[in-house]
Amino acid sequence: GAAMLLWLWLWLCVCCCPARGLRIHEYLYFQVLSPGDIRYIFTATPAKDFGGVFNTRYDQIHLVPADPPEACGELNNGVFIQDQIALVERGGCSFLSKTRVIQEHGGRAVIIADNAYDNDSFYIEMIQDSSRRTADIPALFLLGRDGYMIRRSLEQHGLPWAIISIPVNVTSIPTYEMMQPPWTFW
Length: 186
Hints:
- With 186 residues, this protein is of the alpha/beta class.
- It has a single domain, classed as Glucose Oxidase, domain 1, CATH 3.50.30.
- Helices cover 23% and strands 22% of the residues.
- The protein contains four helices and seven strands.
- A seven-stranded mixed beta barrel has the order 1-2-6-5-4-3-7.
- Pfam families: PA.
- One of its GO terms (cellular component) is extracellular region.
- This is Protease-associated domain-containing protein 1.
């Protein structure tokens, strides 16, 4: 059935298409600790050819939605992004430009959610733009549905940020305890 097809597709991607560049284990996981209604483990993919890596595990760090959401210029809430992680929306400028804006505001990392709110399965490969600029902080891509649900929960609770743990080592978590979002197909 569907599981067999998924397994076959994954096998083909890993074994037969090394030139494509997307290695199947290059996922990074984070868990929302608060607010409780979205206390799930989310899956993100690191930028392909820019940005840093997580050398530190953050047990409790703020995930702050950027204002404006696309983070293509000066932020209205930049002071809250200092030493935290920003949640940004795709669109308006390059992935690298967004990452640099967050870095300039002192952010530790950026999570860029797809602007297609119904996207619950397709990961975009974030690559360099043509500007020859660089960024030092980690940049992750998040499915549009996940980003939307996080922002919606924060709005409903009147909260300025979520509290997350990142990265999360999912191999140490028993499958029955893996709390994926209910809207995600696994």
